[in-house]
Amino acid sequence: MTNKPLTGIEWNRFRMLMTAALDGELSNGDKREFQQFLSLYPECQNEWNEYQKLKEMTMQIKFNQPPEEMWDRYWVNIYNRIERGIGWIFISIGAIIVLFYGGFKAVESIIADTTLEWFMKAGILALLAGLVIVLVSVIREKFFTRKSDKYKEIQR
Amino acid sequence: MQDNISTLENVNIQEDRDALSLCINGQKEAYGFIVKKYMRRAYFTALGLVKNHDDAVELSQDAFIRAYRTISRFDLQKNFFTWYYKILRNLCLNHLRNSSARKLENIDSINDIVDLKQDPSIIAERNDLTEKLWTALSILNVEEREIIILKDLEECSYKEIAERLEIQIGTVMSRLFNARKHLKEKFERLI
Q: Could you list the residue range(s) of the whole structural domain that residue B24 is in?
């Protein structure tokens, strides 16, 4: 290494060594090379000094500790939400069974009702058919499409 | 020294493995051990990313719930927090994306987030610099802020950062250098 201006590649090498040195992750071989940069190039020494100061200051940043009661409630909240999640699954299963059975019975009684006009029967049946299609489509999207979507964690 | 650290790490992983095996077998209470062990780290990680106390609590808890729901897919040989971190990170990034799309970014003031010491005669100047440094850090993009927080605030090793972010150690170093360079530029503009 001569004392002429650093090339772009040498700068990049120095900056990688400096980053490792700042973070205490420099190997013994690299330490020697890094020291050479510092002793031969004042601009490297300046940059090293500046980044050392920055690192010291960054390490002084400490987050505020939230109140201790928050930690006491933390697990309880999670536990309750997990439990409620299981509750919602049962509610959903129950609602689907009741809705489908109720729908089936409603269709049966509408068809059997002789006092109702034919167009009213058709209207009510179309309405029920539409609701079933929408419901099935939503359930299918929720349980089957998302399972095979590798980008499901990323909301678009 | 290194041996002691890896022994401690192994004890940690073993402890987690025992608790997580119980969770997989349906014992919800065992998950309490895992949550209590990592809740502080989880909260501060989220706080560094979303810069808001309430959102950090909510998102870190959501991530624990999501982790619990998919616990059967967790490889017991791996580190729990590294796996959890990916879930939390995705939630935080989605949250930031959604709130910036809706222009609702909710950022706490510096006094709510950073611990500024209260003795004005001794450290007023240092507080001022810390405040400006946090301001500079908080206007970096989230990936740059994240890597600086992981290294300088959480004091993770390059290996840990590489595992958590699923990148090579060389990429960790170059990202860190670029992030610090941008931080330095923004900080110098503020002082």
A: 1-108
pLDDT per position as a tens digit, B4-52: 545 555 666 678 888 999 888 888 888 999 999 999 999 999 999 998 9
Please state the ipTM of this predicted complex: 0.78
In the structure encoding, which two tokens stand for residue B147, read together?
């890597």
Whether B101 and B12 map to the same domain: the answer is: yes
A77-110 tens-digit pLDDT? 999 999 898 888 899 899 989 988 988 888 888 8
Across the interface, do B48 and A63 touch by the CB < 8 Å criterion? Answer: yes
Closest-CA residue of chain B to A13:
B174
Interface of B with A in 2-21 (CB under 8 A): none
Would you call A7 an interface residue with chain B, using a CB distance cutoff of 8 Å?
Answer: no
Domain's final residue, options B90, B108, B126: B108
- Cβ-contact B178, B144 below 8 angstroms: yes
**Rounded distance, CA B155 to CA A12, Å?**
24
Q: Which of B55, B86, B108 is the last residue of a domain?
A: B108
- Euclidean distance between the first and final Cα of chain A, in Å? 51
